[in-house]
Amino acid sequence: MAFTLELAGVTKAYDEFVAVDHLSFNIPEGEIFGLLGPNGAGKTSSIRMMIGITVPDSGAIHIFGQPLTRRLLDRVGYLPEERGLYKKMKIIENLVFLAQLKGISVPEAKRRAANWLERLDLGRWGNSKVEELSKGMQQKVQFIAAVIHEPDFMILDEPFSGLDPASSMVLKDALLDLKKQGKTILFSTHRMDTVERLCDRICLVNQGRSVLLGGLREIRASYGRSSVQLEYEGELPLLHNPALVASSNDFGNYVELRLAPGADPQHLLQVAMRTAKIRKFEMVEPSLEEIFIDTVESTKAVTHA
Amino acid sequence: MRNVLLIMRREYLVRVRTKAFLIFTVLLPLLIGAVVVLPNKLMMQSTGTRHVVIVSADAELANSIKAELSAISAPAEDEAMPADSSPGTKKAPKAADFEVSVETAPSEQLRQRLTTQVRHGSIDGFAWVDPNAVITRKGTYYSRNGSDFVEAAQVSRALRFALSERQLAGHGFSAAEAKTLLGPVDVDTVHIDKQGANKSNGMGAFFLPFLLLLAIYMTVLIYGLYVMRSVIEEKSSRVVEVLLGSVTPIELMAGKIIGVGAVGLTQIAIWAAGGILLGSGAVAMIGDTMKDAHVGNTVLILFPVFFILGYATYACLYAAIGAIVNSDDEAQQLQFPVTLPLILCMVFAAAIIRDPNTSLAFWLSMFPLTSPIIMFVRVSQDMPPVWQIALSIAISLVSLYGLIWLTSRIYRVGILMYGKRPTLPEILRWIRYT
Hints:
heterodimer, A: 305 residues, alpha/beta, 4-stranded antiparallel β-sheet, 10 helices, 14 strands, B: 434 residues, 4-stranded mixed β-sheet, 6 strands, elongated
């Protein structure tokens, strides 16, 4: 299998603080890959190394099967988490300038920018300055800047932040379209719902380390139908019983919980019925959010032990 | 290299298109011009064509005075008021400055009539010259506005010349000989330095270096600060993250510094071109203060050289500051220590212009943070030995090389650091990062 991105033992430390600790994963060509993790987990530090802004202290990064070089970066698109555009410049000037830096000629850049603006419902804003646009519109312009040079590999940091549902739809369609063209996409986000719907594979990082890696379907399946969704009225003290519940995410009248190893779901239901009125009881594969919280909590426990 | 050019081009175009650029380009020369020229100009204000009547029974004398007054229209021959010889002023053509009529029949009625005419403004004044004025050397000038001493001085001068010519003629001098005798004497202040004699005029010798100093100081400071603001803008708007996906920090910093510097050079070129176009006009405007001030070709060539050295030095420092801070406010505090040597240049400048060969001047013209400006002041004032100029430039270049290395390492880390302003030890650690 051809890999678009390969990280092998990548480590980066700032003074004593280890931001990225022996991170390794591969992204096969044509996949959408989710890089997940809580704030400060080392996602941005990892991405900065992937686009050559910083150099790893140790480990190797390969892009398109070759060691990372500047020249290869012309085939990579990057959408930073925060808007990065010249506020006083016109939209079209911003896009043309950034495309030029990726080696696109001016007329070609103009043509593509116009197409993309049209497609993302920004057709009449081309000659406006960035500062005149709403945050959501700026985010769309930023997205265009990341894809205008038709990169084979796109690194998108929180691409949906600040977008209204309609714009999110448009952007999601654009992404799936790019995937159909065989492009590889890396997402960095902590919005699990988008990851669940879009990603083929994920890597969950915490404290600079990869704590969970693999295909989304396999990961969820490996947890089995060991999760329970409960709708209830009343109290559920059993949530704090480690013999029954490994972890839980309680919303007050709805709870997602993972059974403790060896616990019997029937027994759990019986215990629950003693203290609360149960409206719904379902055994499911855990949601990604659950897996995320669970994994982050357990790695924290390990490091603190 | 292509990336440096692209960044440079953007930086250049964005800045040249701003109103600030236009305003500064136009305003600074106007401001300097106003400071230098205006007081002069106000003193020498010509009030347009003046209609003057010469009254004397001696027709020959009267015509002689008339001829002298008309001659003032021609370019200044001696200490004549330079403002009136300026072809650049928008007043009526100089040839018509004095419109002189002659009356050869003095009488009390004539005096009454002319007085009335002066009062009503149909003439500006009349000179009453007795025939024995040749001996008494006295005349009377009647005018509406006695405070216009320039006009009175011109009439007095014309009268003096006419009378002297007459007396010289009485001693057997021909008209041509009389003209030579009465002609101006050129007194040049000759300024002796190690390279030989240089003609210069006291005021001009002070003013010109000062103007050039002001120009180099302002451009270095202002364009250095532009670099800083541009770095802060890219950092705070996070554009820098996008850019660094395409270019290296050193390319970004180089493109920015060169681009902004090119704007500075453009501005200087516009000023220089404007100066040449206005040419004689500008010189005349500045008047005799400047007419003897010489600008050697060496000085003209060295101006951009020292501008580039000074600008590059400070641009690197300001770029590093821009990378360290998060906002303009934070920058305000940090930029002071960097701006201090520049301000010191201005503080010492006056002393150095007066005496460009002290050891203070020497050392300041070697120290890299002051040398571009101070050495340029010395060059424009009193050409120092070539080895000193060469040494100063060499020190500048070497220190610039080190400075680029140092600041680019701070820059490359700083532009990606947000949040708390780093401490000095932290910044020093940045330099060691790979």
